[in-house]
Amino acid sequence: MFKFFKKKELKCACNANETSFEPKSFSGEITSIKVLGTGKSCNELNENCKSALKELGLGLEVEYIKDISVIASYGVLSVPALVVNEAVLSAGRALSKSEIKELLSKA
């Protein structure tokens, strides 16, 4: 006898929209910026972040973290994620350069 189950719709982690994620805020001077993830969208976020920093004139390096255990330690369920001063600002989608600039200018 066979049982039939409905298939759950699965999405790629790099393109998923995180619904339970609440971004944290940060204040003060920006001291560190990290991009978490390993996929195509993650690479896109990394490049957009580098471009935004260059346009804003901030002399910071973007740390690109691909280690799954480190990513999990931030409590991020879907990638890419943007971390500024150890606060997760975005997760689940690649932000555009203008979105990153807007986030960073609020500091």
The description of the largest β-sheet is:
4 strands, mixed
The tally of beta strands, per DSSP, is 4
Q: Can you give the mean pLDDT?
A: 81
Please give the radius of gyration in angstroms. Answer: 16 Å
Beginning-to-end CA distance, first to last residue: 61 Å
- Strands of the widest sheet, in order across it, are 2-1-3-4
- Beta content comes to 15-25%
Helix content: 25-40%
Main structural class: alpha+beta
Oligomerization: single chain
- Give the overall shape: globular
Q: How would you spell out the order of helices and strands?
A: EHEHEEH
Could you describe the 3D structure shown?
- This protein has 107 residues and is of the alpha+beta class.
- It contains three helices and four strands.
- It has helices at residues 40-56, 68-73, 97-105; strands spanning 33-36, 62-65, 81-84, 87-91.
- It has a four-stranded mixed beta sheet.
- Strand 3 (81-84) and strand 4 form a beta hairpin.
- Helix 1 (40-56) packs across helix 3 (97-105).
- The longest helix has 17 residues, at 40-56.
- The chain is globular.
What structural keywords apply?
107 residues; single chain; disordered N terminus; 3 helices; alpha+beta; 4-stranded mixed β-sheet
